[in-house]
Q: What sequence folds into this?
């Protein structure tokens, strides 16, 4: 294997260099899920709470609409359960995963919690198991990887340290009743990982889609920019709208204005900044969140040249999920509710990256703690 230059981004560069290429275009339909943490169906199985929701969304919406499927790491929770017990409990979910091959493609990226699958000779999804994917969208690249590779401790997924930590947690910490180490519960560590991926993506002028931190991310417009954009878009639609549509637009603009005023009134200076370099957002990192959130399941969709962050729930979502999120609409055909948290055109996003991202020689680390995220659903 090629030797890579050691340094902060050496493992991320390796992932980009060795990623399995997958051509996509404007007509592609793809959904990305991560962090299911499937167990044995017992009360300690974190996936159990949203399992029916996830299965319904996958089968009744994405499979029927001919989406391709990518699972971006930590699908099985091998730090708590054996792969055999997981496969026995969720065999129908595995069947559902494989059904997506007829739609276009199915790939499964491994993370730090399902790293042990590399040594499972009879693992059902082994032929589709990879460490990273590279969507080739024309001349541009979308890199998909779990995200633990950006951690200082886990920066080599095949290293002795990473594998030793995996088996330490599974065979010593778990039987002893010690809670698993998880970056999803450490805010500072989440920011460090996200920032490392953000900086690497800008240096490489690519989009990165990760999981691992369980934080849904859509790094395109800032909150203030997005609210202004939505208000302007609604104002343009107003003259040609009918009476009922105008009432709906008026109500939505009132809500958006109140939210925008709140950004200034409460002194949310982070909301007023657009990005990292000279107050300009570079939309280079996205995170599909997780499927074990208390308020639903989040995912990244790529469809008709658009990329969007969505949340699925069963209608019992009381707290507004607001980062420019759409207001609650009628349930989808599958009987569940889908909320678009944010969306934008891929061509626009890549244009921003090409025009605004620094070159590798110009790149410099940015200040900690400034990465904007959609609300966490953990």
A:
């Amino acid at each position: 294997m090629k030797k890579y230059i050691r340094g902060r981004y050496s493992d991320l560069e390796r992932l980009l260099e060795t990623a399995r290429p997958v051509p996509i275009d404007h007509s592609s339909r793809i959904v990305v899920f991560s962090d299911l943490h499937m167990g044995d169906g017992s009360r300690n199985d974190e996936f159990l709470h949203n399992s029916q929701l996830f299965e319904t969304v996958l089968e009744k919406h994405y499979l029927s609409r001919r989406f391709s499927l990518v699972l971006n790491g930590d699908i099985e929770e091998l730090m708590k359960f054996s792969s055999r017990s997981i496969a026995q409990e969720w065999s129908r979910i595995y069947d559902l995963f494989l059904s997506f091959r007829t739609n276009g493609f199915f790939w499964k990226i491994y993370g730090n919690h399902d790293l042990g699958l590399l040594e499972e000779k009879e693992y059902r999804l082994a032929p589709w198991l990879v460490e990273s994917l590279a969507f080739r969208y024309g001349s541009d690249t979308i890199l998909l990887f779990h995200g633990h590779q950006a951690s200082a401790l886990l920066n080599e997924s095949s290293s002795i340290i990473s594998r030793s930590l995996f088996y330490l947690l599974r065979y010593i910490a778990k039987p002893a009743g010690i809670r698993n180490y998880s970056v999803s519960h450490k805010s500072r560590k989440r920011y460090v990982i996200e920032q490392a991926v953000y900086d690497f993506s800008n240096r490489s002028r690519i989009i990165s889609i990760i999981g691992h931190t369980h934080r849904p991310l859509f790094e395109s417009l800032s909150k203030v920019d997005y609210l202004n954009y939505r208000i302007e878009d609604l104002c343009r639609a107003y003259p040609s709208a009918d009476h009922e549509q105008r009432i709906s637009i008026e109500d939505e603009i009132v809500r958006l204005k109140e939210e925008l005023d709140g950004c200034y009134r409460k002194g949310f200076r982070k909301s007023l900044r657009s990005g990292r370099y000279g107050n300009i957002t570079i939309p280079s990192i996205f995170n599909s969140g997780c499927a074990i959130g208390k308020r639903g399941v989040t995912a990244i969709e790529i469809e008709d040249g658009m990329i969007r962050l969505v949340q699925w729930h069963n209608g019992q979502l009381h707290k507004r999920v607001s980062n420019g999120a759409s207001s609650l609409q009628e349930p989808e055909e599958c009987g569940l509710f889908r909320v678009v948290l944010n969306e934008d055109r891929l061509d626009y996003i890549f244009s921003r990256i090409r025009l605004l991202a620094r070159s590798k020689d110009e790149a410099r680390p940015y200040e900690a703690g400034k990465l904007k995220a959609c609300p966490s659903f953990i």
